[in-house]
């Protein structure tokens, strides 16, 4: 008699709000996408807000896996290793993406690099107050993610002129931004 074991792999998606600045506007878009994505999938969806990283994670031994800050190890163990897909929301800082995102990726690349990054998938949404929606920053991040072994969806979505599309009273977004986020949800789930 043959026994067939069926294994169900539960996928997990992590949405990353890529700014460590308090009261940042990126958080509103990322939270909105999180709420919408949770309604569209049975996959587990987790939300990582980089503005909650408190304290100093930059010190001499941060690139030694046994001496990494506990908060970085927790982020890696709870958000990166179990995820099969990521959705990065990255604001434009000085023509690229925030240093906290690069620092986080750099630190995690010395401990459990393959389980954290290898053959996983990512979508990127750029957030900017200007016209380009952080196009350059999305390309920079895509290059880094590709180097780490993450496959980046080719449609990187810019959300530009955020102060025109983000309601200052309740932080709701306009219909165009809503469509952009909804389209990227569809792309992420099919990816």
UniProtKB/TrEMBL annotation:
Single GO cellular component term: cytosol
Record SUPFAM superfamilies: Flavoproteins
One MF annotation (Gene Ontology) recorded for this entry: FMN binding
InterPro entries recorded: Flavoprotein-like_sf, FMN_Rdtase-like_dom, NAD(P)H-dep_reductase
Domain (NADPH-dependent FMN reductase-like) ranges: 13-155
PANTHER family according to UniProt: CHROMATE REDUCTASE, NAD(P)H-DEPENDENT FMN REDUCTASE LOT6
Name by which UniProt lists this protein: NADPH-dependent FMN reductase-like domain-containing protein
Protein source organism: Flagellimonas maritima
Source taxonomy: Bacteria, Pseudomonadati, Bacteroidota, Flavobacteriia, Flavobacteriales
